[in-house]
Amino acid sequence: MPDNILHIENLSMQFGGVLAVSSLNLDVCQDEIVALIGPNGAGKTTVFNMVTGVYVPTNGRITFKGKTIAEGYPESQMKKLYAGDHTGEYSKLISNTPDRITALGIARTFQNIRLFKEMTVFDNVLVATHMHLKANIFSTALGLARAEEKRMREETAYLINLMGLSPQKDELASSLPYGKQRHLEILRALATKPHLLLLDEPAAGMNPQETDELSAFIYRAREALKLTVLLIEHQMNLVMDISDRIYVIDFGKLIAQGNPAQVQDNPDVITAYLGVEEA
Amino acid sequence: MKKEMKWLLSLATLALVVWALTALEGRRNEYNMLYTVLQKGMILAVAAVAMNLLNGFTGLFSLGQAGFMAIGAYVTAILTIPATKLPGVYYISGVSQAILSFRGWTDSLPDWFQTAFPYLALIIGGLVAALFAALIGYPVLRLKSDYLAIATLGFSEIIRAIIASPQLNLITNGSYGLKSIPKLENLLVTFLIAAVCIAFIVLLIRSSYGRAFKAIREDEVAAEAMGINLARHKQYSFVISSFFTAVAGGMLAMYMRSIDSGTFKIGLTYDVLLIIVIGGIGSVTGSVISALLVTAAKEWWLRFFDQPLVIAGWEVPLFRTGFRMVIFSLLLMAVVLFYQRGLLGHKEFTWNVLMPSNWRKWLNKKQAGGKRHA
Lengths: 279, 374
Hints:
By secondary structure, chain A is α/β, with parallel strands linked by helices. Chain A has helices at residues 44-51, 75-82, 98-104, 121-127, 137-141, 146-162, 178-190, 208-225, 236-242, 260-265, 267-274, and strands at residues 4-15, 18-29, 33-37, 59-64, 67-71, 106-108, 196-200, 228-232, 245-250, 253-258. Chain B is globular.
């Protein structure tokens, strides 16, 4: 695929004896909304954590816009290493910290909301623009970077306005209702100016009306900001409603992929979700 | 309240403070206790605000304050003790030739330099401490919460032990300490230096970097996911906080006029910690108010309990030297029990307090809170 911005190749993650993700291949193309679904504990969040640099994969490679952002030792070379053969050319271990991944243009939200609770809605979004600040700490403190500060505030106000949170902008993040907190978390991720947005169960714990509002919110963000979205979700109406393609994983393995209609009818997916019918 | 009104009130208060301080300067002997309390209180306020930058705004629980204050105090002292008095101060083991020749050189410089030099010495003390902070910050700031506290506490004690060690007799005068440190010129100057330090920290907190610090305090994982480089920002906060802590240490040396390694025991860190806990972890104005209140209570208002009290020929048994500290501790417990977040919590003092409508709001909140409990 020529226009895939995220390319995951043969990705594995092992925690002790548990293989959380095993040889996963996944592609996200420009302007797509791709969903990653699967039962609880299937390894979805682990994939996110590897993409965002929280974990270094045990094996495989993640490429973002043609640039390798995370890489484990390819298996054959690992064997060489174990055999004590260090002469072989093994790839340098690439690992990025989460802040560097964000700087490259991948922003994320969290499964359990992680807002800056004691800060206002406006400041929550504003602080996400901090990474684009070029002025050093002294000139910023002494007010020599006013122009940049002004630009950051304008960007923040624009985003908040665009996504319809202006009425609450001076409230504390913790005082928002649950659905709005989810919106704010996405909004905060958008302020880092990402190309790829990773949403980890954005509709968890939402009622149907809030879920509808959320899919409208995601659409609006995508249209206005030309976003590509990869999301993990359990609420099937949201997934079927907004995603272009779906990947289904179970026990760390990819069991199905395709558009919503294909996935819905796939027998493996039904088995993974509902279990095997007893004879 | 209107913005102009607030400015007016602030300016009026400022003028009042300047007037009061100049008036007090002239009658120093009459109001000796007030003078002392204001001076020491302001110095501790700088240390408290610097500690609050680290503990309250960045969420890094560090207990290295006394160590950084010691560095600032010793550097300032060595640089400012008059060259003629140096042999007298180091009468036991003599003074290092390097210090003597350096001081000889600085004393030969013109008058304007002599006037500015004490302030320069404070800044140099701060820079030395900042250098130490940068060096230990790299390994130590990877630690979380209580581990960081233990590591910085250890650092502080190591600094104290090094200062007191006989190997450094020629520089720090070992365990004999340093004397004849010139005093801070007057109260107004103390306030001015404190104001400049606190103002810089406030500007920093209000800037984009300050918001990043708060984000780290609120949620490290989310802050990092928002592109904030944790190691770098923690280092900034640690180094800048240490700089101002050391400036406060230098001012403390100038206030006390004689220091030794015992001055910078862990108790000093606790004094500062106490101030920020009472004032509100995360409130600059809270720290300043609380620094003045705590110092006044400790040094002045509670003195009464240290004097023997005789009522109708019966001597009340508990009133004797040291009893004021018992009362002080009891008050402290009361504050911690009833104002868990300190006097101001995360909030700052604003002139809005003067608005009657805000009192009503506050009262309503109290009542509503009371009902919920009942």
